[in-house]
Amino acid sequence: MSEIIAAIATGRQPCAIGVLRLSGEGCAETAGRIFSCRSGKPLAQAPDKKLVWGTLRDLRGRELDHCLAVYSRAPHSYTGEDTVELQCHGSPAVLTAALEALCRAGARPARPGEFTQRAFLNGKLDLTGAEAVIDLIEAQTADMAANAAAQLGGALDRRLGPIYQGLTDICSHYHAVLDYPDEEIPDFQLSDFTQQLRTDRDQLLWLRDTADRGRILKQGVKIALVGKPNAGKSSLLNALVGYDRVIVTEIPGTTRDTVEETARFGRVLARITDTAGIRQTEDRVEALGVERSRAAAEEADLAIFVCDAAQPLDEEDRRAMAAARRAKQAVAVMNKTDLPQRVFRVELPFEQIFAVSALRGEGLDKLCRWIEQRFGTDLPCDGSILTNTRQAEAVGRAAEAIDRALAAMEAGITPDAVLTELEAALEALGELTGRSVREDITQRIFERFCVGK
Q1: 275 near 232, Cβ under 8 Å?
Q2: Residue 328 burial (CB count, 10 A)
Q3: DSSP H stretches of helix in 180-265
Q4: Helix axes 114-121, 127-138, angle to 10 degrees
Q5: How big is the chain by its Cα radius of gyration, in Å?
Q6: Is 209 helix (H, G, I), strand (E, B) or coil?
Q7: What is the spatial distance between Cα 433 and Cα 155, in angstroms, rounded to a whole number?
Q8: Nearest 10 degrees: Cα torsion 212, 214, 218, 223
Q9: How many H helices and E strands in the chain?
């Protein structure tokens, strides 16, 4: 018998509707100690998955709220156990008092992610589905939500399941022939599986390679604004995000540390970092900011080199250009085009160059459209995009193990050595879905969740 757990599922901020959630055998009786059905019947006798109207009371028996309750019986519930949800008005005081009453009535407070963890342990979700729950909660774009919802619906398992089953069939066939030589089992020939293994490897490699786009889909494009002091980086950031996020003055070196803000370019979420101006300086604080600027450029998906187009390029500009070009991708922005121009496109070693006036907002539309087109995912958001490092690492190990098995087959190595690699691939895929995974890995996954989920 599992303990009865209870939590406020909707957070502790005032809202229109607040939900208390319970799970565990006997939770309907526990909830019934503070919730009285208007029909007069006990909550434990309520119809399955049907809303019932009633009164919620605190520890002293005082009426707290008139609300709804729904009782879902095992195994047809989110956790696979008996569950109850109390749907109240969203007063934090009401929800807190009700939770305290439930704990006095026999429940205990749920740990972060414990409801979803029970769903996993009871076979209602695999690990990819559990991770999709938190991805769906944290989704900041419709594309991310769509991909997470598809994974919650089992999209990854449907893609990986045939590969896992095929490898299992190969391994079981080999061991059956080895262990039961007197039985009439078809001969085991590794060459019969060459094409299948190549197809499996290629599918896994394709899936692994979606991880970078999945990171961008989930976390946003990392964009670093790089340039010398007073080139207009802070003005450009303010223009892109639509409000005065950073202080702008005519004094060089106003920005002495990195400042990050989010913006959307169509369907693309971006995390834009305004960096300290890159130049030689004796100021220790500013020098630290310059080093952080260089690091931000190297880690960025896109570095935008910003120059003051009303001033000739100088050595500080060239240092900033060199820093920008260390990013995965770099473009140039000729800022202050509302002034007479003294910088020309041929002087800038970038394939993409945009002329803008951050002060007036001129030319920004072209830059924004280019970012959207360049980083708008061309992959279907159907659950087939990997969105975390754990998934990508496990898929990569499975593909590499199959590749080693194919190399061993081509080299004429004995079948038992080949099967060792295929079993390693199975173990990696098992870690991905939770068929075989260490307890510490599952613990780290559920630690990301908030209470009540």
Answers
A1: no
A2: 12
A3: 194-208, 211-219, 233-241
A4: 150
A5: 29
A6: coil
A7: 11
A8: 30
A9: 15, 13
How many angstroms separate the Cα of 129 from the Cα of each of 6, 149, 152, 177, 388? Answer: 22, 9, 4, 36, 13
Task: Provide the 3-class DSSP secondary structure of residue 411.
Answer: coil
What's the rounded Cα separation, in Å, for the pair 337 and 324?
21
List the single range of 97-106, 324-333, 366-375, 380-389 with lowest mean pLDDT: 380-389
Residue 76 amino acid letter: H
According to DSSP, the β-strands at 35-37 and 83-90 are: unpaired
Q: Is the dihedral of CA 25, 28, 29, 31 positive or negative?
A: positive
* CA distance linking residue 401 with residue 191, whole number of Å: 17
Q: How far is CA 243 from CA 88, 99, 304, in A?
A: 38, 41, 19
Phi, psi at 434, each rounded to 5°? 100, 5
What is the total residue count of the chain? 453
pLDDT band at 186 (very low <50, low <70, confident <90, very high): low
Residue 140 has, within 13 A of its CA and on its CB side, a CA count of 16
H/E stretch holding 332: strand 330-335
Is 370 in a helix, a strand, or coil?
Answer: helix
Element (H, E) at 92: helix 92-104
Domains contained in the chain, CATH given? 5-110 (3.30.1360.120), 155-210+383-446 (1.20.120.430), 217-375 (3.40.50.300)
Judged by phi (left if over 0) then psi (alpha if -120 to 50, else beta), residue 42 lies in beta
Please give the model's pTM, rounded to 2 decimal places.
0.75
In angstroms, the Cα distances linking 143 to 66, 137, 182, 329, 396 are 38, 13, 56, 23, 24
How many C-beta atoms surround the C-beta of residue 365 within 10 A?
Answer: 11
CA–CA distance from 109 to each of 23, 68, 100, 106, 195 (Å)?
A: 11, 21, 9, 10, 53
CA pair distance 332, 351, nearest whole angstrom: 8
Provide CB contacts within 8 A for 45, sequence distance 6+.
Answer: none
- Tell me the average pLDDT of the chain: 85
pLDDT on residue 251: 41
Question: What pLDDT, in 10s, does the model give residues 230-267?
Answer: 888 888 888 888 766 544 445 444 444 467 888 888 88
What's the average model confidence in pLDDT over 140-158? Answer: 87
